[in-house]
UniProtKB/TrEMBL annotation:
Residue ranges of the TM segments: 148-165, 171-195, 207-229, 235-255, 337-357, 369-390, 397-418, 470-490
Membrane topology of this protein: Multi-pass membrane protein
Keywords from the UniProt entry: Membrane, Transmembrane, Transmembrane helix, Transport
Top-level taxon of the source organism: Eukaryota
GO MF annotation list: transmembrane transporter activity
InterPro entries named among the record's database cross-references: MFS, MFS_trans_sf
Organism name: Fistulifera solaris (Oleaginous diatom)
Subcellular location: Membrane
Pfam families the record matches: MFS_1
Protein name in UniProt: Major facilitator superfamily (MFS) profile domain-containing protein
Gene Ontology cellular component annotations, sorted alphabetically: plasma membrane
Length: 510
């Protein structure tokens, strides 16, 4: 009798338990159905606004799983699917944004007042890059690097279409500004994706090496092709827009933010169902953006690296004016000569970047000091060869020396431009994207002042005689000297060990 009662009671509780499981199953299925209704595209575009606080614990567990899996996958080859996909994407983006560099001479033939505004055009482009870093940079951590990369590629396509439809010099300058504004955030996106995938695995430097090499190879291959199509410069601009769509497709189809997560923002937005859009963005400003900006701006490391980054960023942005420099110093066919800076940077990444990845901290510092010295000498050589008295001695020989100096200048800034800021950025936690963007923003902001104010003022006072370019390149060399001192001192105090007795090796002995 007692056994019968226990058996019936057990069946009763088993029925209740089964009903509870069925209800949980129905609830789970309805929740999944609701998520499917959002649609893949709308979730991709606006899914960052629907993060729930309840998922924080799950995200922490997934982050731990990601960390464990990344440590287990330390044997991942250098040229793996992630590195190759990101390298291909950034290569097509670099090819797309290289269109204005080679089109400047062809556009000058149609817009007569554009030739006299070459330095202002370069300054506008660099200013667009700086503003793009500062405005779009925080969105990387909020929305996710993958989303921002895809969105910026779409906007880059529209900007290149606007360039193809330009009818005046002012429209062309605005288009160049928009091209840089939309595309400049893509490298920080790649830095964040690599840091998330490779944390703890020792493969981060290899990922930076492959993707930075892809960036330069894209520009290296695109500029000669664009040069051959210069008479149809509007078609070239439209071709750049098509390449931007290719880059967008690669990242959308083959890249995810984390090893096991399609979207994994570093600093995600927590949304409550009862909040409206305005209240949501107020919380985002108070809880996400302001603390991140305070964290970045209060860091001495950020300011040290950002100011040191200005010199290499200025040399990197000089490719926007190299065609005009060669043209005004006697080279009539100058449209494709900006490719030599990309050749120099590519060689620097292949040779010096490979050596940098395998050396000790002190050997790295000595390598960087020698690279800076080579770029400084090259800038002073470009300044000297711009003087008419020197250039007229042997024009053909001087043209060869100018090309060699451009290659050496690009070779010297490759490692300081790509490797060092990226290595430092991996230590900024959930603010990696903002750090990478703001570091580039400070560097390109200072370089826009150099090209727009100093070099532009020199060219207006000595238009067409080469003397203005001599003053301009001398100013670039001086900025490079100051930034090299900051960068080498930073490497000494933050990467190298103290010498015997606790003293450090300063720039004087480096």
């Amino acid at each position: 009798m007692l056994l019968g009662q226990l058996s019936s009671r057990k069946q009763h509780y088993q029925t209740i338990h089964d009903d509870t499981k069925d209800k949980d199953k129905l609830y789970t299925e309805s929740k999944e159905e609701k998520e499917r209704i959002m649609g893949r595209l709308s979730h991709f575009l606006f899914g960052f606004m629907y993060e729930d606080d309840d998922d924080d614990d799950d995200d922490d567990l997934e982050d731990l799983d990601d960390y464990s899996s990344s440590k287990m996958e330390s044997w991942t080859p250098l040229y793996n699917s992630l590195n190759l996909a990101l390298a291909t994407a950034i290569a097509t983006t670099a090819a797309a944004e290289s269109a204005p560099l080679t089109l400047m001479a062809a556009m000058s033939d149609q817009f007569s007042d554009l030739a006299s505004l070459s330095s202002q055009t370069a300054a506008a482009a660099v200013l667009g890059a700086a503003l793009g870093k500062f405005i779009n940079g925080p969105l990387i951590d909020l929305m996710g690097a993958r989303r921002i990369f895809v969105h910026s590629s779409l906007l880059l396509c529209l900007s290149l279409i606007f360039l193809a439809l330009s009818q005046t010099a002012i429209m062309a300058i605005v288009a160049c500004f928009l091209i840089e504004f939309t595309s400049t955030v893509q490298w920080p996106c790649i830095v964040v994706i690599l840091a998330t995938h490779y944390r703890g695995s020792g493969k981060y430097e290899g990922g930076i090496f492959v993707t930075s090499l892809g960036s330069r190879m894209g520009a290296l291959l695109a500029i000669p092709v664009y040069t051959g199509l210069l008479p149809q410069w509007r078609v070239v601009a439209l071709s750049g827009g098509w390449l931007a769509l290719v880059s967008c497709s690669i990242v959308y189809l083959y890249v995810q933010d984390a090893p096991h997560q399609l979207h994994a923002p570093q600093n995600p937005i927590a949304r409550h169902p009862q909040e409206g859009t305005f209240r949501l963005w107020m919380h985002v400003l108070e809880d996400n953006i302001v603390p991140s900006v305070r964290h970045i701006c209060a860091s001495p490391t950020f300011w040290w690296v950002a100011l040191a980054h200005a010199g290499s960023a200025t040399v990197r942005s000089s490719e926007r004016v190299l065609a005009t420099y060669f043209y005004e110093t006697g080279t009539k066919e100058s449209a494709g000569l900006a490719v030599y800076l990309s050749i120099g940077i590519t060689l620097g990444l292949v040779i010096a970047g490979n050596a940098f990845a395998s050396q000790s901290e002190r050997e790295r510092k000595h390598l960087v000091s020698r690279l800076y010295l080579a770029s400084i000498v090259a800038c002073y050589a470009l300044a000297a060869m711009a003087l008419p008295a020197i250039h007229k001695i042997a024009p053909d020989l001087m043209r060869i020396f100018q090309i060699m100096a451009v290659v050496v200048a690009g070779f010297g800034i490759a490692v300081p431009l790509y490797h060092i800021p990226s290595l430092v950025g991996a230590t900024f936690g959930c603010d990696k994207g903002m750090y990478a963007a703001y570091t580039d923003g400070v560097g390109y902001g200072l370089s826009s002042i150099v090209w727009g104010v100093i070099v532009g003022g020199s060219l207006q006072g000595h238009h067409g005689d080469g003397v203005g370019w001599a003053y301009g390149w001398a100013a670039v060399a001086l900025l490079l000297i100051l930034s090299s001192i900051l960068m080498i001192e930073f490497m000494e105090y933050h990467f190298c060990r103290p010498r015997h007795g606790g003293t450090y090796e300063t720039i004087i002995f480096a």
